[in-house]
Known about the structure:
CATH architecture of the largest domain in chain A: 3-Layer(aba) Sandwich
CATH topology of the largest domain in chain A: Cobalt-precorrin-4 Transmethylase, domain 1
CATH class of the largest domain in chain A: Alpha Beta
Largest interface: A-B, 64 and 64 residues
Oligomer: homodimer
Amino acid sequence: MTGTLYGLGVGPGDPELITLKALRILRACPVVAYLAANEAESFARTIVAGHLPGGQTEIPIRIAMSADPAPGQAVYDQAAEALAGHLAAGRDVAVPCEGDPFFYGSFQYLFTRLAGRFPVRVVPGVSSLTATAAAVPVPLVSRNDVLTVLPAPLDASVLRARLAATDAAVVMKLGRHFDKVRGVLDELGRTPRSLYVERAGLEGQRVLPLAEVVPPVPYFSMILVPR
Amino acid sequence: MTGTLYGLGVGPGDPELITLKALRILRACPVVAYLAANEAESFARTIVAGHLPGGQTEIPIRIAMSADPAPGQAVYDQAAEALAGHLAAGRDVAVPCEGDPFFYGSFQYLFTRLAGRFPVRVVPGVSSLTATAAAVPVPLVSRNDVLTVLPAPLDASVLRARLAATDAAVVMKLGRHFDKVRGVLDELGRTPRSLYVERAGLEGQRVLPLAEVVPPVPYFSMILVPR
């Protein structure tokens, strides 16, 4: 009997935004693995810290985030092998993931490496997409609206074309790309109603009209472009 | 002291995919209102039925869904006034919403009518977007992928243009629009890798390669177009 790998969405940051299902599985697994940027504590672990029963084997997986690591990185190969050892020995492994495991999450690189060899279950979580709208609060999309999710590192020309052709949009991963994104929204006349959101639903949350933002801004911040 | 209106995302259908926060607030409110299609029981109520403590005042809000009701419909005015009575009397009102309240949810029509008059809080929920990817399971988006969410009732020309310009897409609200959507995906050569998902995460879940689907399909079904 091999163990099962669980990718658990634990929500955008507020520990209370974990689902009953993710919490139940998280507490039941003998092994818990966390993806974390080098040197920093895993954000996912911070979210679930108060929910852990104690006594679990914890495996930190350190990823150099500076270069937005490619899915082929050897670090994922090594991490997958470490987890495979536990799975082969019959131990279930939980991987808590901030937000949702398949919505811009690194869990998918473990998934692609292990899904063919072991049972894998994914529990969806509250994503930063809807958490940001709820935090403002402002309705995101209704009826036949088109919604586009855009990572800020994309070229300005791509951002411009996609933003011009959508009803509502969310631009993620701002950081050093903030000025470029605001420039595009200025050109399109969509800055006035756009909102900047940082730490949605967490202590220190900031919601500002986009026009009032003074960079620099953190990587984990978003611009919400209402319909 | 007026009451607070709570829009509670209760997830895509599995009662265990409610968050701790939505559950706590749901149980604490003296009044619970449900949006429901005419004649049918509210899907949101079905999801939370097992979580209700009993003794709450329940307000069903019947909406004729056949025509995808416009946000200006008088039924929302009437429902808002019914809730306003409780709020003005100091009673907190919870509105459980399937998925997320601001992600194609009718709650936003109550929100726009009541947010200026009473305190309103929105608790985000697991949306059908990520629940569908988790149910397959298949990764949705990573790194700098563009994700587009498209309601199937849109014109074929709009669907074609948006689908041609995105990495990944989810097409929602299929129902009688299924043939049109598949025709567009056929033209774009994206049918072979696309997946059809019905009742994601629920009993009776169906996941099929898009090419194998025989319509008719229900309204609450989706097509996932992987990157």
